[in-house]
Amino acid sequence: MLSGLAPLLHVRPELEDFCRFGGDWRSPHDQMHGGAHFHIVTQGQCVLERSHRDVLTLQAGDVLLLPHGDRHVLRAPNAGPAGGPPVSVTYSNAIRIKTSVGVGIGAELICGSLHFEVAPDNLVIAALPDVIVLRAGQEALAERFVALMASIRDELDGARPGAASIAADLARAMFVMMLRRHLEDHPPPAGLLALLAHGMTAPAALAMLRDPARDWSLDALADIAAASRATLVRAFRKTAGVPPLTFLMGLRLGLARQLLLAGHESVGQIADAVGYQSEAAFSRAFLRQFGVRPGRLRGRKAAAF
Predict the structure, then answer these.
(1) Short-list 145, 149, 180, 142, CA closest to 167
(2) CA–CA distance from 238 to each of 189, 191, 242, 243, 273 (Å)?
């Protein structure tokens, strides 16, 4: 699946903080819109704390991904609600180096974010759970992940020219590997990820993701999947609950909704970009799917700012 999906995932990693914390430290992170938080624990341990959720303990070698950019706090295991010791901040290669002052260092983390383009990666990310943890120390592939983490750490710690760019590329590779490992361990029950994980439906789903505006026919999709029309329809119904062309309609409208919320193209331009022959037909389909006209959805977004 990821061999075909990876080139479509326009993920821009940004490594933000290299943290060396000690004492009863706490590190809050705000909600991120249009992106994900990630943290790599390179030494020690810490606790993930989210509103109305159970805490989660992370150990050295763990990689944490919050695909929907949820607000959260990372803290020392025994930290209370107070702020902890003071933190000094310096910069190296545009990376913040945060160090607890006056205490021994008990944990070391690399913190950053993943910024996603509008499509198709946001549709893939939307299907992921709230939290993904890769416990590299318990995996058969531990050496590979540990090597990546060590390389990222060494680049940031060494402060050599180009270190931030190299570290970001390594983080991008780690993200794709995390996604692959998560899908191997937790096969999705239905929807887009399930289609992409299924040997027969994946080629057709990927083709529609790559070119949603194309006038796809069931024959063309069946040819791509190397299956008969009836077999492909059965596979889509079993995996996603809908036949291929119904899935295509939902895909187009989902992409259109993202474009409306994130971009500045006109409604007519968006209708053309997702494969509708007329703005009126697009508006009717959008209303049926989301209960609101495209122009009104964009108006609501504008009014919120």
Answers:
(1) 149
(2) 10, 10, 8, 9, 29
Please check whether residue 247 is in contact with residue 237, taking contact to mean a CB–CB distance below 8 angstroms.
no
Whole-angstrom Cα distance, residue 114 to residue 133? 15
Name the residue among 202, 43, 9 with its Cα closest to residue 123. Answer: 9
Task: Give the domain ranges of the chain.
Answer: 2-185, 192-303
pLDDT tens by residue, 11-58: 777 888 999 999 999 999 999 877 889 898 989 999 999 988 889 999
How many CB atoms lie under 10 A from the CB of residue 27? Answer: 22
| DSSP per-residue string spanning 36-67 | EEEEEEEESEEEEE-TTS--EEEETTEEEEET
Spatial distance between the Cα atoms of 252 and 303, rounded to a whole number of angstroms: 25
Residue positions counted in the chain: 305
- Could you tell me which of 72, 80, 76, 87 has the C-alpha nearest to residue 38? 72
Residue range 189-233, pLDDT digits in tens: 667 888 887 888 989 998 998 888 899 999 999 999 999 999 999
> How far is 275 from 24, CA to CA, in rounded Å?
55
The tokens for 39 are 């943290």
Query: Could you tell me which of 291, 215, 280 has the C-alpha nearest to residue 257?
Result: 291
Superfamily of domain 192-303: Homeodomain-like (1.10.10.60)
What's the CATH code, domain 2-185? 2.60.120.280
Question: Side-chain half-sphere of 112: how many Cα atoms within 13 Å?
Answer: 27
| Residues ≥6 apart with Cβ < 8 Å to 299 | none
